[in-house]
Structure formats: structure tokens, C-alpha cells
Amino acid sequence: MEENKKLVTILVPAYNEQDVLNMLYDRLKNIMDNLTNYDFEVLLVNDGSKDDTLKIMKNLRAVDSRICYLNLSRNYGKETAMIAGLDYAKGDCVIIIDADLQDPPELIPDMLKFWEEGYDDVYAKRKSRKGESVLKKFTSKMYYKVLQSVTNIEIQKDTGDFRLLDRRCVEALKSIRESQRYTKGLFSWIGYNKKEILFDRDPRAAGNTKWNYGKLINLSIDGLTSFTTAPLRLSAFIGILVSLAGFIYMLAIIFKTIFNGIDVPGYSSTMVVILFLGGIQLIFLGVIGEYLGRTFNESKGRPIYFVDRYNDEKETNEKLNK
Ligand code: UDP
Ligand code: MG
Fold first, then answer.
1. Residue 196 and residue 119 in contact, taking contact as beta carbons nearer than 8 Å
2. What is the pTM for the complete model shown?
3. Which residues lie closer than 8 Å to 11 by C-beta, 6 or more apart?
């Protein structure tokens, strides 16, 4: 065996994925066994699953020493599971892949090839999205459009978290300790040499998607508010427009009163103006509140996650308190 083989970490966040983990392992094993030039570490992150995911992870580790697992203290969501995994990954590069086999592991050799050519971030862009509803495709397309147009950084379209990251990208991501993470934006934000490869996204192998519209909407708002303050500016602009209109209306009323005298009826116009202004004020209070909330959350400075176990050792989280 030659020395100095590079270590590749395959990072898999998993939440209630008991139905797919074994299938995933078989596919990964195939790939790893064929790539003899590298050492592999498969880091399975159990994000507080309520099914037998952890048990399966332990079993897999028992049969293959390349498997490591990280058991988080509860369910934190994929974004946090990913940063936890990055913190524990030992590889010279890290490949993030979904547990549900929607990201074909067969792309890994290509990713490694581009990595060897000097790219730091090789991301897989999907040509198609099988098994996703028209509505989901449409909303995600619109969302990317909006996000793109209000942020200065380029957000890759149709790209998930399936990608290879060089160690220096990993270190960059680790240095960003925001608690409401929007990793998709962070990948772009850190920069470095990027390379895209195209693939067909498969439907989920088994189990159910963990995303519902509620979670997706939250993620979208996190995405917007963590990368741009444009909504705040928009509220200022709209405020100016509305008060300008209000001013003109005021002049009109004054002149009307001077020349035509006071006319008392006017209930409907008064109501319309009050309701309209009230609505706009509430909306923008909400926008301000959204940013205030983020500031509040970040200012608490809590650790982003707690770990229950790394492999067979109990974590005391001592490191986190230093
Ligand atoms: N996931 C996670 N924590 C969560 C939700 C999801 O670690 O709270 C993982 C999940 O196990 C999967 C990946 O994130 O490996 C993507 O989730 P899913 O397939 O449900 O999302 P979709 O592919 O539908 O966008
Ligand atoms: Mg999926």
C-alpha cells in the first residue's frame, strides 16, 4: 500500500432515513472500492432521527471501519447537521451527499477528477428534477430569480448541497458560525474555484421528503435575510412613495375644502387610506422584526449544535465551552 493517499470524507446528513441507509452504503461501497487511490471516511450525521437510523449507522460501522457516525443531541435541521459534519470531517476534501440517493454517488469519481485539476468546489447541478411536483419546480425557480436579483453574490441555480469541497472551503465554512445558516448561499459567498457538473436528479429511493412548504418558506426567508438587507431598503422606498402620495392627497383635500367648503361624507376614502397605510406599516414592521430577530438570535452566541456521540465515544461538549 502506498503512503500519503488523500483522505476523502463523504458527509451524509440523515434524518429518519432507515429505509435508505443500507442502499446508500452499498452504492458508496462500490464507488469507494473502485477508487483505490484514495482513503475514504464516510461520516454519517444522525440529525435526531426518531426511527432506527442510528442503529443502522452503528451496524454499518461494525462491518466497515471507514464508516464514522455523529449523533446530534436532537433534530437541528439539515443546515446544522451539515456544519456539524464539516466540523468532524477529517478529509482533505469533503463530499456532501443526501442520504436518500437523490444525489447519485456515481458522480464522485468525476468530482475527484476535477478536484485533482485544482478546483475547490465541484458542485452538481441538476438537469432534471424527477419526482418533484410542478409547483415545487416553479416556486424554486422563482425564488432563485428573486434571490439572485437582490443579492450581489451569484447563487447557483438548480444546485443542492451535493458537492465536493476542498479543505480550504471546509475551513472557510467552519469559520462562519451563524446559527440560522443558509449554506447554499454560503457556498457562493466564500468564493474559490468553482466547477459545475451536470446530472439527472433521481427521485428519492425510499422514505419521505423531510421538507414541507412551511420549512421551505422558512429556509427561503433565511436565505433572503441572511444575504441581503434589500427588504429593509424596499420598505424605506415604499414608505417614501406612500407618504408622497399622502402629501398630494392632503393638498387636494385642503384645496377642495377651501373652495367647496367642508363636506362631511368621506367615510369610504378615510377607511381605505387608514387600512392601506395600516397594512403597509404592519408588513414593514414584520420585515424589520425579521432582521431584529436574526440579530437577537445571533447575539445570543449559543453553540450551533450539541453532539451526543461521535462513533462510540460520548461527547462532553467541553470543547464548545472554551
Ligand atoms: N435532513 C436532515 N435533517 C433534517 C431534514 C433533512 O439531516 O431535519 C437530511 C435528509 O436525511 C436528507 C437530506 O437532508 O439526507 C435532504 O432531505 P430531503 O431528501 O428530505 O430533502 P429534499 O431532497 O426533498 O429536498
Ligand atoms: Mg431528498
1. no
2. 0.79
3. 43, 45, 82, 85, 86, 89, 94, 95, 96, 97
Q: Which residues have C-beta atoms less than 6 Å from ligand 1?
A: 13-15, 17, 47, 75, 77-78, 81, 98-100, 102, 209-211
| Least distant ligand from the CA of 210 | 1
Question: What's the one-letter identity of residue 29?
Answer: K
State which ligand 1 atom lies nearest to the alpha carbon of 12: 15
Answer for the pair 103, 31: CB distance below 8 angstroms, yes or no: no
* Inter-residue contact 139 to 219 (CB < 8 Å): no
Helix (H, G, I), strand (E, B) or coil at 63: helix
Q: How far apart are CA 194 and CA 164, in angstroms?
A: 10
Ligand that lies nearest to the alpha carbon of residue 45, given by its number in the listed order: 1
Residue for grid cell 462532553: 316
Q: How many whole angstroms from 279 Cα to the centroid of ligand 1?
A: 36
pLDDT tens for the chain, 322 residues long, are 556 889 999 999 999 988 899 989 999 999 999 888 899 999 999 999 999 999 999 899 999 889 999 999 999 989 999 999 999 999 999 999 999 888 889 899 999 999 999 999 999 888 776 666 787 778 778 877 877 777 777 777 778 889 999 999 999 999 988 888 888 888 988 889 998 888 877 777 777 776 777 877 877 888 788 777 788 888 888 888 888 888 888 888 888 888 888 777 777 778 778 888 888 888 888 888 888 888 888 888 888 899 888 887 777 766 664 4
CA trace torsion 57, 59, 62, 63 (10° rounding): -100
Pocket test for ligand 1, best of 21, 47, 96, 98 (most atoms within 8 A of CB): 98
Distance of CA 161 to the CA centre of its chain: 8
